[in-house]
Amino acid sequence: MTGMLLFEQNNWQNAAISLSSSQKIYNKLADAVEDSELYREKHDEMTPKVQYCLYNIQSMGGIQGIQGEDGETLFQELDHIIANKATKTTGSVRENKMGG
Question: pLDDT 10s digit of each residue in the chain, 100 long?
Fold first, then answer.
C-alpha cells in the first residue's frame, strides 16, 4: 500500500523501492505455498508501475541507491520464516505417514 501511495504522489524513487520490495515478497510467498497463482498475479500487477517509476527516475537524472540494506534484512527474515514453515510441514507429513 505504501508503494501505491508513493506512486500516486509521484515519489518515483521511493515508490520503486517499495513496489520492488513488495514484488520480492510476493515471489517468496508464491514459492512457499502450493497454490501460488494469487501471489504471482499480484507480482505481475506491479511490474508496469515499477517500470513507470524507473522511467521517471531516469528522466529526472538517474537512480540513487535503489537497493537498501533494510530490504535485504527483511528478505533474509522472510527466507528464514519460509524455511521454518517448510521444515514444520515436512515434519508433520512424516508424523502422519508413521502414524497412518
Answer: 889 999 999 999 999 999 999 999 999 999 988 888 999 999 999 999 999 999 998 888 765 544 444 555 655 665 666 666 655 555 544 444 444 4
Q: Which residues contact 92 (CB under 8 A, 6 or more apart)?
A: none
DSSP assigned state of 68: -
| Tally of residues, the chain | 100
Q: How far is CA 12 from CA 25, 74, 92, in A?
A: 20, 21, 45
The whole-angstrom separation of Cα 32 and Cα 29 is 5
For residue 43, CA distances in Å to 5, 23, 90 come to 17, 5, 27
What does the alpha-carbon distance between residue 50 and residue 24 come to, in Å, rounded to a whole number?
A: 12
The pTM of the whole model exceeds 0.70: no
